[in-house]
Write a structure and sequence with these properties.
The protein is an alpha+beta fold. The chain is built from seven helices and five strands. The protein has a five-stranded antiparallel beta sheet.
């Protein structure tokens, strides 16, 4: 966070030593978070990380419930397979939102064809490439660099041709956010 000149003095509002309570008139009334609140926070953490709304999240949960594997692992695998997440992990965008915008604006090709749906679930063997125009390649080269990002085991990237591939489906170990998927399953199963 960018701080102003005032934060270099003792009058900084962000770092006052006497403020041990959160701001607000009723800060002293805050209670311990209950079971529902803990489960809700875990669900919201995952939704915000992947950039999905409630309705989309429930659809992913229903798909994960129907799968034959562990529901929590299947849910995180489905969310990890979203095209905007894969494009971000390949380094074609500096953030989730930038990767999503690049997809919607038509800068990303899937198996040689333009695809503008960030929620598309990639499959094993899919090839993700950048549009062959100079503007698209220049944008992606600025974020990828010469060596390319550090990739997970289930993705490969050719930094020269700006083409990535999905080698395998992601597993629970590939999900890097600290999340308790069992709490999410308990929340959504009610």
């Amino acid at each position: 966070m960018l701080k102003g000149v005032r934060c270099e003095t003792a009058k900084c509002a962000m770092e006052k030593q006497w403020r041990s309570n959160p701001p607000g008139m009723h800060a002293w009334r805050r209670r311990k978070v209950g079971d529902f609140g803990i489960r809700l926070r875990e669900k919201q953490k995952v939704k915000r990380y992947y950039g999905v709304f409630e309705k989309q999240f429930i659809e992913y949960f229903r798909k994960a419930e129907r799968s034959k594997t562990n529901t929590g692992d299947a849910l995180l695998s489905l969310l990890e397979r979203r095209l905007d997440n894969v494009v971000w992990k390949l380094g074609f965008g500096p953030s989730h939102r930038a990767a999503r915008q690049a997809i919607v604006h038509g800068h990303i090709y899937m198996n040689g064809r333009r695809l503008n749906r960030p929620g598309y679930l990639v499959k094993q063997g899919d090839r993700i490439s950048v549009k062959p125009s100079d503007r698209s390649k220049k944008f992606v080269r600025a974020t990828v660099g010469d060596s390319g990002p550090t990739l997970q085991d289930w993705l490969t990237l050719d930094a020269k041709t700006l083409e990535g591939a999905v080698q395998a489906l992601p597993t629970r170990e590939d999900v890097q956010i600290p999340v308790e998927e069992q709490l999410i399953i308990e929340m959504c199963s009610r």
